[in-house]
Amino acid sequence: MSIINYVNKEVQFKIVYYGAALCGKTTNLAYIHGHITDTNKGELVSLATAADRTLFFDFLPLNALVIKGFRTRFQLYTVPGQVIYNATRQLVLRSVDGVVFVTDSHWDKMQENVESFHNLYDNLVLQGMDMDRIPYVLQYNKRDVPRLAPVHYLEYILNNRPVRVPSYQAVATTGQGVFATLNAISRLLLRKFIRETEETAAAGQVRAPAPAATALSGIAAGTRR
Amino acid sequence: MNPTPVPPLSAADIPEVTANISSPAQRLQSLLADFLDKTQATFSLVIDRGGSILCQQGNLPESTDATILAALAAGSFAATKELAARLGETEFNTLHHQGKNANILVSTVDDDAVLMTVFGPETTVGLVKFYAVGTVHCLATLLKEARTSPDSQIAISKQDFNAIGNIFHQ
Ligand SMILES: Nc1nc2c(ncn2[C@@H]2O[C@H](COP(=O)(O)OP(=O)(O)O)[C@@H](O)[C@H]2O)c(=O)[nH]1
Ligand SMILES: [Mg+2]
C-alpha cells in the first residue's frame, strides 16, 4: 500500500530493484540519478562495501508530478543480490509497492536469475504479499554482452506466470531501457493507486460493490498483456 | 497553532481533547509540536517501517533531506531489531545513537511506524525518552484515524491518469 504523508499531502511509492548479484541494479539507480530531469531528485545513498558491492541498500528519492494537490514521490531501493544477504533483502522489501526484477542476460547467469526470482517470490510471501497482487516489471539487462540469452528464452523462464508482465531490454551502463523500465513500474503503481482510491470512494458512498467491481476489473485487465 | 491548551503531562489526553475540532493531520502536527516543545528536541519524524515519511515537525539543517533520514532510520531500526531478535532479545523498543552534538532516538509506535527524534546538547536522552513514551502512544491512535480519515483520501480519476504521459524524463 502506498504511503500518504498526511501533513504534507504526499503519496509515496516504494519501488525495489531486485535481482541476482551483479545483474545491474545499482547501475540502474546511478543512471537515473545522473540523467533525470523534470523532477526533483534527491541524493543517491549507497550503503555499500569498499568494493562497491551493495551491503544493505541503495536509495534514491524522486519527486514526481502533483495530482489533485498531492505530490507523488517515488522511492527507489536496491537490494544486495548475494545469496547470504537474504535477511537484508527481507528488510528492504518491507512496505514495497512495486518491483523491478533485473536480469543478467548472459547465458551463464540463467540459474542465478531464476533462483533470485524464486527468492523474491518467497520473500514477498513472508511479508504477506504475492506476485499476483504486487505490480512488477522485468528488465532484461546487459543486452550488450557476448553469449546472450535470447529474449524469448528469458520470457519463457521468467515471464511464465498466469499474468504476463511488461518486460524491457536494457543496457544499464549506457541507459538503454532504464527510463522505459522506471516509467513502466511507476505507471503501474499510479494506476493501482487510482484503482484503490476509487474502491475506497465507492465503499464510502454507497454499498454497491457489484458495479464498482466490474469497472475495477476492467482497469485491472488493462494492465495485463 | 494549538487550538486547545494541552494539560502539561498527560500526552495521552491529546487525541480526546481535540478530537472534534481538527483533522487527524492537524492533531498529528500539534502532538509532535508539543513533544518538541516539552523535550527541547530539534526535529521529529514519524516513519512508516518501510522508510516513508508519515509526518514531521521541527527544523533540520538546510542540506539535510528528511526523506533520506527516514529511509536510513527505518533501515537501521529494522536491522537492529532483527539483530536483537536473533539474540533472543524481545524487549526492544528504542534505539539511541549518541553523537558529539546530535543524538537520535528511534522509538516503536506500532507495527507499522516508528518515531525518530533528533536532539542536541540542550536536552537529555532521559527527558526525550520520557516524553516519547506518551507521544508514541498517542501517535498510534492518531495514525489509525489518519489512515481512514476522509481528509487523507485523494480523489483521482481514470481521466486524470490517462492525461499523464511518461512520469520521468531524461
Ligand atoms: N556490459 C554491461 N555491464 C553492465 C550492465 N549493467 C551493469 N553492468 C556492470 O555489471 C557490474 C555490476 O553492476 P551493479 O549495478 O553493481 O550490480 P548489482 O549487484 O545488481 O547492483 C558493474 O561492473 C556494472 O558496470 C550492462 O547493461 N552491460
Ligand atoms: Mg548493487
CATH architecture of chain B: 2-Layer Sandwich
Strand arrangement in the largest pleated sheet of chain B? 2-1-5-4-3
Structural class of chain A: alpha/beta
> The CATH topology of chain A, please?
Rossmann fold
Number of strands of chain B: 5
The shape of chain A, in one word, is globular
For CATH, the homologous superfamily of chain B is named as Dynein light chain 2a, cytoplasmic
H and E string of chain B: HHEEHEEEHH
Largest beta sheet of chain B, briefly?
A: 5 strands, antiparallel
What does the radius of gyration of chain A come to? 18 Å
CATH class of chain B: Alpha Beta
Kindly estimate the percentage of residues of chain A that lie in beta strands according to DSSP.
15-25%
The first-level CATH class name of chain A? Alpha Beta
SSE topology string of chain A: EEHEEEHEHEHEHH
TL;DR?
The complex is a heterodimer of chains A (225) and B (170). Chain A is α/β, with parallel strands linked by helices.
Secondary-structure topology with pairs:
The complex is a heterodimer of chains A (225) and B (170).
Chain A: E1 3-5, E2 10-18, H1 25-35, E3 45-48, E4 54-67, E5 70-78, H2 86-92, E6 98-104, H3 110-126, E7 136-141, H4 151-158, E8 167-169, H5 178-205, H6 209-222
Parallel strand pairs in A: 2-5, 2-6, 6-7, 7-8
Antiparallel strand pairs in A: 1-2, 3-4, 4-5
Helix pairs in contact in A: 5-6
Chain B: H1 14-17, H2 24-39, E1 43-48, E2 53-58, H3 66-86, E3 94-98, E4 103-108, E5 113-119, H4 125-148, H5 158-163
Antiparallel strand pairs in B: 1-2, 1-5, 3-4, 4-5
Helix pairs in contact in B: 2-4
Bound molecules: guanosine-5'-diphosphate and magnesium ion (MG).
